[in-house]
Amino acid sequence: xxxxxxxxxxxxxxxMFGVACANPRPNLVIIxxxxxxxxxxxxxxxxxxxxxxxxxxxxxxxRCTNGYVSGVVCAPSRAGLMTGRYQNRxxxxxxxxxxxxxxxxxxxxxxxxxxxxxxxxxxIGYRTACIGKWHLGNRDAxxxxxxxxxxxxxxxxxxxxxxxxxxxxxxxxxxxxxxIDVPYTTDWYTAEAIDFIGRTPGNKPFxxxxxxxxxxxxxxxxxxxLARYAHIEHKARRTLCAMQDCLDxxxxxxxxxxxxxxxxxxTLIVFCSDNGGVVNSTNHSINAPLRGQKSMFTDxxxxxxxxxxxxxxxxxxGELYEQPFISLDLLPTFLAAAGEPWKLKAGKExxxxxxxxxxxxxxxxxxxxxxxxxxxxWRITHRGAAVRHGDWKxxxxxxxxxxxxxxSNDISEVNDLACTRPEVTRxxxxxxxxxxxxxxxxxxxxxxxxxxxxxxxxxxxxxPLVQPDATRAAASQ
Length: 477
Description:
The chain is of the alpha/beta class and 477 residues long. It has a single domain, classed as Alkaline Phosphatase, subunit A, CATH 3.40.720.10. Helix content is 26%, strand content 16%. The strands form four sheets. It has a ten-stranded mixed β-sheet with strand order 7-6-5-4-8-1-9-10-2-11, sandwiched between helices. A four-stranded antiparallel β-sheet has the order 15-16-17-18, covered by helices on one side. Keywords: Calcium, Hydrolase, Metal-binding. It comes from Rhodopirellula sallentina SM41.
């Protein structure tokens, strides 16, 4: 009788808290920065910007030194992250902002037949939220609520950190907000994220895609944050540092909430940026030691910080991971973490090619020195392309001969070896052409010609390749 009573109590406990209590599925979080410089966090070498909370996340998890995103500008990069497919495969190569109005509106955005990471996680029982910047289409069929997200709060398009009701730019679900609850969007997005977590039933895991605007232009910071960097004379750089500091504070707020509610240990958190920082008069990010910036096909355009944390999931503490991987890997990694490993035949599902791999065994050190990918690719038609194969990197632009770099000893890509190693140049040009020929779609739309003209001088420009000291901006700024 005692055994029956104890068994009944156990069944009631399981019913209240879910079978997952014995082996709970992790919560899954992506914290995405926008146009963040590779060198603009102290754990990645910044001497100017204090990021103690992000640093703590890195020291408690794995910090990656060769993490890439699939696009060199915002929207294409996000399209790849959402689907686990090179966005070129479905014609999403150019930014939505700046697309000419003569393109069919039904084509401008993430195609509705593409399955998102939120679709997949929602289907296996996750509660899902997208908070922050969307930029993957403005039609109702492309709205986050139509793409697998139970909850949406943020901007479908545009930027700005001090929103006003009259602008009707901030949406909750499908309607613009009628009041401003928090005056600064970086703070507001975090408040909404914490509220979403609090409203998630205790027996249901959640997937949170927290896509901050920070530090994308316009450069707008709170006075309290600017005061911390009053010693930096350059106004734009000072403002960017303050914005990054605010982002770090908000990462800290989110992590504190997870810890206070006992959820941190079993939450897989990935922190990264959508592409490289902008290094010019409008933004003043620092990508050092990487050369170049957003929109370019040198590493400054798509080589970004990546941090993974999951204390109860076997991700080691305080480790460096130095093998190349790409943001397309997040989808299969999250599915594997959720206990739903993705079983593809020849990398295909329903005739579609998928390009990501599960990173967990690599991050846990179970695959030795193996690379998740032998070769990685990038392209925006009419603006450039690149391929990384091992440590060799080839950059192709419309107006210059192909450039070849050995990243094993030239991370800044300053020594072009295309002429001295023609056999490698030819091999990588062929790999790039073979990849391009595998697409079923041409680009569905193009950016305005102004964006295309921008490439004509950026590859010859000077970029800071070392971090500025704590009191001044880089010499070129």
